[in-house]
TrEMBL record:
Thiol-specific peroxidase that catalyzes the reduction of hydrogen peroxide and organic hydroperoxides to water and alcohols, respectively. Plays a role in cell protection against oxidative stress by detoxifying peroxides. Keywords: Antioxidant, Disulfide bond, Oxidoreductase, Peroxidase, Redox-active center. It catalyses: a hydroperoxide + [thioredoxin]-dithiol = an alcohol + [thioredoxin]-disulfide + H2O. Homodimer. Belongs to the peroxiredoxin family. Tpx subfamily. This is Thiol peroxidase. InterPro entries: Redoxin, Thioredoxin-like_sf, Thioredoxin_domain, TPX, Tpx_CS, Tpx_Peroxidase_subfamily. CDD domains: PRX_Atyp2cys. The active site is at residue 65. One of its GO terms (molecular function) is peroxidase activity. The keyword Iron does not apply.
Length: 172
């Protein structure tokens, strides 16, 4: 049974339980298999040799998640070809594609944790009560070592964009 971190975060001030370990700077990032669409998956090795900014959101169809993903889409344009920005949510791949098309988001790779929620468990962001992934940011170097992590204490708060981008730029 996966580790539970009760009260590790809140939703509108109410405690929620996160499932999985709290990853730290210096940890090797867990591999993952996430859905790109209904028939195609992506794993960490698909982005081998690149710096990865992983932006985790509960659902693209909410205001904070929308703003977070749009902001990282803009930032991705200035980070160069050696950086990939991944947005992970449990939204269905159809919904992710629809949202990206409507929002004009074209520099972020959206990946879905809807099938198994294993990314959420392995990265310590699966919200037990909602079966959504908690808002968080992970920056991985080219060897998949975590160099920056931000677990948001409140689900409706925005991440620290400047620190996350600075962590990526420090690896360039």
């Amino acid at each position: 049974m996966a580790q539970e971190r009760t009260g590790a975060a809140t939703f509108k001030g109410n405690p929620i339980t996160l499932i999985g370990p709290e990853l730290k700077v210096g940890d090797q990032a867990p591999d993952f298999t996430l859905s790109k669409n209904l028939v195609e998956d992506a794993s960490l090795k698909d982005f081998a040799g690149k710096i990865k900014l992983i932006s985790v959101v509960p659902s693209l169809d909410t205001g904070v998640c929308d703003a977070q993903t749009r902001r990282f889409n803009v930032e991705a344009g200035d980070l160069g070809d050696n950086v990939v920005v991944l947005t992970v949510s449990v939204d269905l791949p159809f919904a992710q594609a629809r949202w990206c098309g409507a929002a004009g988001v074209d520099r972020v790779v959206t990946l879905s944790d809807y099938k198994t929620r294993s990314f959420g468990e392995d990265y310590g962001v699966l919200i037990k009560e909602f079966q959504l992934d908690m808002r968080s940011i992970f920056v991985l170097d080219a060897e998949d070592r975590i160099t920056y992590v931000e677990y948001l204490p409140e689900m409706t708060d925005s991440p620290n964009f400047e620190q996350a981008i600075s962590a990526v730029k420090a690896l360039l």
